[in-house]
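Hi there, hope your week has been kind to you so far. Do you reckon you could talk me through the fold, stretch by stretch? I've dropped the whole record in just underneath, so have a look:
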Amino acid sequence: MNQAVRIATLLLVLLCQAFRLDAATLRTGLDVLDAGRCRALKGMRVGLVTNVSALSGRGEPGYRVLLRHGVDLKFLMAPEHGFSIDREAGEKVPGASLLDTLRIHSLYGASRKPEAAVLNGVDVLVFDLQDVGVRCYTYVSTMKLCMEACRDAGIGFMVLDRPNPVAPIPPSGFVLEPAYESFVGADALPFLHGMTVGEIAVWLQKHRFPELSLQVVQMKGYRRGSFADELDGFRFIPPSPNIRDLETAILYPATVMLEATEVSEGRGTDAPFRMIGAPFIDSAALKRELDGFRLPGVEVREAAFTPSVGKFAGRECRGLRFSVTDRRAFDPFRTSTALLLSLRKLHPEKLGLNRHALFFDRLAGNGRYRLMIQEQRPIGEILVAASGEIRTFEATAPERYLYP
């Protein structure tokens, strides 16, 4: 082989390797839009729904990517927790300004739906938010309301897709019933749905908004069989104040139901959603009950903490701390159900399920789950009931995925 042939062969090998590396590196919808110089938005007046966690792979905020490419960006809109992600859950978010000229309209203030008068000034509304893969997380509800508003205003809607960070966890929990739709339950999805926001947008358009002009800018290098931190190029940026790392995102669906009880879900501590407790709990007794369920993929330890805010602020709580030991074996819905059954058995009155019934049912997606917990039904019976709904959902939405 002469020198010229060897050099040509080496260059070809290096080119192929570079192509494989590029194909394997995650590029979000924002990165793909950036690589195309935002041509899909040229000549259009644009609004952007986002917050500071929605960065490009190079760490550049989405609004700056659009401005750098000369996009006519008219305003931003921010969901729950605000553009700066400095507002606690449920705290109303006021409007603000950025760069002195870019208005940030709140979608968690006086209204949670974009106002028609604001949308009349744009041709397309772009949505770029990092979801966590659980139905009660409100960014999907914000997206649904934005889609409805865009349909009504006769403008386009574009989703810049991002990973579902817990996608390998199989769909589980109950499918939301229409009577229980709320801001913590946007539509008839499983509690853990396994979908990206782009996939949910396509599903919503098909079932709810067929008249809407929808474009999803798909990711490159995304594999639904991978947790987000297993994707080359992914950086976990907290999408809300209390989802601070990927392990918290994995544990969140196991403990979030406690928001609708008299037990703290760990807000106001250094480990929200990873610790639970209340002044009335006997940690040792609760751990014994939970150990009886032989929960896979999770270690449970006794804990004590004093929240700085939220439930029992300034009071010592006793409870449990959870650590994921095998994320692929861990079953958040099974863990949540076992925890609720145990708390109900040990503290039937103090748990507060009846006092918070409406909120609990909206989180659960139906009224049956609460009744099954109160009646101390066997955990197997509850899991079978939920899995039957998952099978029905999957049968009615077989083409809901955009990615292999």
